[in-house]
Structure formats: C-alpha cells, structure tokens
C-alpha cells in the first residue's frame, strides 16, 4: 500500500501527531510524514512529526499530545523498540492508570518464516505476544492487504481509540511501496567507512573494540578483515541499540589493564545518553569512546537524529570526560590519537562523517555466538 493512503486514514481518525524511532520497514511512511510536515504533499494533510531519540520518549510525546488535544497520537518503531515502551504503556497509557488511547505502528523484523538478521529472530517470534501481553489489540498488515481491508481495519481502530484503548498495527516487510524520495546529504566529506578504517589502523592491534549496531559494525567487520585479516578483537553489537558503551564499560571494569575502544553512533548515543554521564562518573582509564556522527539513523532509512544540534564533545566535557576531540578528516583524527597516545584519561572523539554507504556493504558471515566465542578467546588472554 502507499504510505500516503495509510496516512490519510490516520488523519481521518483525528490523528495529527506522530512520533517514533525510524525503522527500515517504515521508511516510506516516515518520509511521507516529513513531506507532510513541510507542506510538500498534494493532499493538504499536515502532521506534526517528531523523530524521537528513543521509543519511550516518543511515547511521552504521544501522551502529551493527547493531554493537549484530547485526540490520540501515533507511535511508530521497529519491533526491537518494544522493550523501551513497556513501562510507558503499562504505567502511563493503560486503562488501569491514565487511560490514554494510542495507535502503534510496529515494523516486524524477524517475522517467523522470513529470513532476517540473527538479532531480529527471537524478537520477531515474540512480537505479537509481547504486544498482546500488554493488553494491546494487535493487527497485522502486509503487501497483500487491500484498500478495502485497510478501510475495515481503520473502522476497528477508530472504535478502539474512542474507547481509550491502545492498539498496534504490525507491518510486514514490503508493506509500504516506494514513494518518491530525495537523496539526503549533511554537507560533510569524510566517508564513514574510510574513517572507520583509519580508526582501526590507529588502534593497537590487540586492543578490544566494541562497535555499535547497524552499518558501523558492518563496516568495522569488513575494514578489520581488510586491514588485519581478521576481526577477532571486535565485538559487533548487532542489536541492543544504545548500549554498546556500557557493554564496553562492563568489559573494562573487569580488565582494568587493557585499553578499550568503543565505536558508537550518534543515534545510538542519543538513545541512551545517560550512559555518558555514568561512564564519566566512573572515570575508567584507557577508555576511548568514539562517536561516529552523520546526523542520521542511516541503518534504518536515513531519518535525521537530533545530533545536528548536539555537540558531543562539549556534552562529554560537561559530563566529566577528561579529553575531548572533534575530527572531520583523517588528519584531525590522527592528531586526536597522537594526543592520547601517552594519556590514559577518559577520552571522547567525535568523528563527523558524510551520509552514505556502499551498496555492496556486506554483513558478518559468522553468527553472533561465533563472534562472541572468537572475541572472548582473543581478548581475554
């Protein structure tokens, strides 16, 4: 179905506030919302669209919109984000608490019977049950869902929302067909994959590396293989978005003698930003936190993050990181590494990079369990 038609039906329910965290399965939906908000659609429908930094925050926006207008809002996410909304749904929206209506749109990664990446498989299996266990009326749409079936679905959704219920539409892969979209740029020149290659060359060959979810870990995997012939000292955090720095800290706390590197992303850092304050409070020595910043959730469709208004180096400094650097090219990156070569204090390096990735960018060939076993064998010696 076309995202524009689905959004028209949302508007007919009185919904004009939409917030969430992007998902590749919802890319066309999100792009339509942005066009609508900017007055670039022909249908006259205008949504207030807020790309939040985590799903719980987006749920808060939806609750606040209802309190202001008396109308329900729409919350969207990948199914991996359900965990971030369990508490808001159960302790804020539910009929036993504030009784606030909500329509959720959930991208179904790891749908049973559909090939997907390993981090999505169990989440996909549990998706429907998780939603139903929270008393959320759940429906599924696919590329085979007809306009007539969509109309019937929205009649049902309208009745549920009038009764202040929470309901979810789970979206299968390929449901939303392509809408015309424009290429995005952030005006930067440093290619992320090149930056990651440069970082790996500057890191000691035996130093543990923890990399965040999405294309960053895929590029760490390929660049490490290209440079060193293996990726054994790299822990590729293929899921758990926003938690890589804490995984790295947990490792560091048990290996104080090692220098540990965390290669993070702007969207991941923003999702659970309290981790920076925690790490700064702990002041681990020889802990280098690298934030690759392209101002976008590129791995799930390229929607903007709030990073274009955030100065990660300044934030880190205010939190208590001792050394902070910004690099926009290879030379500045090399200067930052030279400055910390003999400095063991807590460090953050923000690397500002361009949007985009190779069309043929690969994925890890090993399973996460195999990656874990090889990593532990390499870095725990």
Overview of this protein structure:
- The protein is α/β, with parallel strands linked by helices and 381 residues long.
- It folds into two domains: 3-171, Rossmann fold; 192-379, 3-Layer(aba) Sandwich (Rossmann fold), CATH 3.40.50.970.
- It has 14 helices and 14 strands.
- The strands form three sheets. It has a six-stranded parallel β-sheet, with helices on both faces.
- α8 (215-228) links the parallel β7 (209-211) and β8 (234-236).
- It is elongated.
- The N and C termini lie far apart (54 Å).
- The model has no long low-confidence stretch (mean pLDDT 93).
In short:
This protein is an alpha/beta fold.
Which helices and strands occur, and which strands form pairs?
Elements: H1 3-12, E1 17-20, H2 27-37, E2 48-51, H3 55-69, E3 73-78, H4 86-93, E4 102-107, H5 118-133, E5 137-141, H6 147-162, E6 166-171, H7 192-202, E7 209-211, H8 215-228, E8 234-236, H9 244-254, E9 260-265, H10 266-271, H11 274-282, E10 287-293, E11 296-297, E12 303-304, H12 312-319, E13 323-327, H13 330-339, E14 347-352, H14 368-379
Largest sheet: 6 strands, parallel
Intertermini distance: 54 Å
CATH superfamily (homologous) name of the largest domain: Thiamin diphosphate (ThDP)-binding fold, Pyr/PP domains
Number of strands: 14
CATH architecture identity of the largest domain: 3-Layer(aba) Sandwich
Query: How many separate domains make up the residues?
Result: 2
